Structure formats: structure tokens, C-alpha cells
Amino acid sequence: MEHDIKKIFESKVSFRILFGIGIAIVALLIFSLGVIVGFHKASYGHAWEENYERNFGFMPGRLPLDNFPNASGAIGKIIKITLPTIIVEDRNNTEKVILIKDDTQIQEMREQITINDLRIDDFVVVIGTPNAQGQIEAKLIRVMPIGI
Amino acid sequence: MKDKLTKAFKNSVYEPNQDLEGLIWSSIIKRDKRNAQFKLWAFGLVGVASLAGLVPTFKILFTDLTRSGFYEYFSLIFSDTGSIISYWKELAFSLAESLPIISIISVLSLLFVCFLSIKYIMKQINRDQLISSLTLSI
Q1: Which residues of B touch A139 (CB under 8 A)?
Q2: Which of A18, A32, A92, B70 has a CA that sits 20 to 30 A from residue A125's CA?
Q3: Cα–Cα–Cα angle for A73, A144, A85, nearest 5°?
């Protein structure tokens, strides 16, 4: 009996079964990661469009045609500063409202700067968390050197 | 009549042609060689096509990586590692959302086809050499 069990687990078939299970686990993990990221983006895209008029003050805009905007960050020039929020024009011409909170870390190169050091036309990289108002609550804002 | 016929067949001895074995063997080798050469050309063409396709696909991938802002998010890792550890979740989301998945899949698929073709070409060359050595030994 013990010999049979040992034989089964040492066979090629058992290796293939384990390999198959392993691949299925990895595939499911990647799939669930895709679902989470997709949901995250879609939720932000919905909130962004719903609150467009309130955030930007004019006619509702349209989402970029090919995809939802990046929900956890923004890269681009600061086009408006109305503290505690700034508006960044993202890569696909999407305006994003960045909410700066007390715990937001603002850096220029490796130096810490304050909220008042931010200027219009500064090129920034922002990472944060999207909220229900279609804004991104910034955790880190990094002012990039001009020309990058 | 039937019995006589059976007897006649039993008494007859079939003597195959002396060259028959060699002829069968050489025709098998000839067919194998033709098949191997056909496969070699087919895999060669697929390999060259996938290699040529890799150039524009890589260009598209780099353009997409630049346009999506992946490089900028990625550069944050090197800006201040200490603070990035506290915001790893936001950074991971930003990186995942800015990944140009379709371009990456295209590049990886072409690389896969290219490597597979090279592997089969090598296999066919080895097989071709084996067949040639068999032909010489006959």
C-alpha cells in the first residue's frame, strides 16, 4: 500500500497534475490581479466623469477613448493651483485633480519641499489613492527636472 | 483444382530481389530527407518572420511605455526608497495600470515563436545530419 502511494507520487502523471495545478493557481492569481486593477481604474473613471463639472467647472468632458485614466497616479504639468488641490494635465490630455493632504510628501529631486513651492508648469509625478469625488489623494508628489 | 493450387503455392519459394532491402531503405531515407528539408525551410521562414516582426513590435512597446508614463512611475523607486516602501501599494497600482499589456504580449509571443523556431531548426539540422550519415553508410 505504502509502496503504491510512493509509486503514484513519484510518477510523471503526478508531476503533470501538480504542474497543471500550479499553472492554474498562477493563472487565477494573474486574472484576479487584472480584475482588481480593472475595477480600480473603472471606478476612478466613473467618479472622474461624474464629477467633471464640479471639479473643472465647465461642460462634462469625455474619457479618453481607448482606456480609463490611471487611477493611482498622474504625470504631467500643473495647469492650475487652488490649494489644497492642484490640476495636472496627464499624458492623454486628461485633467486630474490632485488633493494635497497634510501627510502628502512633496519632493524635488531628493529634497523635501512644501506645498507653496509648487508652481504652474511644474512637471510632476504623483501617486496616491482615488476618492469618490474623482480626485486623487496624493501620497507622494515628485517635481521632475525640466526636460524630462 | 483448389488443392493443386495450394500445393503449387506451398512448393514455390519466393526469392526477393537482392537489392530490395537497399531500395526500400534508400527510399525511406530520401523521403525523410525531403520532409526534414521542408520543415527546415518552414521553421526558418517562421523564425525570420518573427525576428523581423520583433523590431517594430519592440519600437511600439517602447513608445507605449513612454506614453503611459511607466518610466516616470518606475523612476520613483530610485528617488526615495524609504518613502516608497510606505506607498508601495499606490506605486504598484500605478505601475500595473500603466503597463502596456498588449505590446508586452505581442513582444513575448514573437520571442516565443522565434525561440521555438530556432529550437526546431537545430533539431532538424541534427536530424538531417543523421540521415546524411545513414545515406553514406548504405
Answers
A1: 86-87, 90
A2: A32
A3: 50
Tell me the domain boundaries of chain B.
38-137
- ipTM (interface predicted TM): 0.71
Contact A72, A140 (CB under 8 A): no
| Strand extents, DSSP E, chain A | 73-82, 85-89, 95-108, 111-112, 123-130, 135-143
Q: Are A87 and A79 in contact (CB under 8 A)?
A: yes
Domain boundaries, chain A: 1-148
- Determine the residue type at B14: Y
Of B117, B122, B96, B128, residue with least CA distance to B48: B117
Measured CA to CA in angstroms, residue A138 lies from A34, A79, A101, A131, B67 at distances of 23, 16, 7, 10, 22
pTM for this structure? 0.69
Q: Which three cell numbers stand for residue B30?
A: 530520401
Amino acid at B92: A
pLDDT digits (tens, 9 = 90+) for B80-101: 777 778 888 888 888 888 888 8
CA-nearest residue to A148 within chain B is B72
Residues A10-37 pLDDT 10s: 778 878 888 898 899 999 998 888 888 8
Is A1-148 in CATH node 3.40.190.10?
no
Tell me which residue has cell 503455392. B9
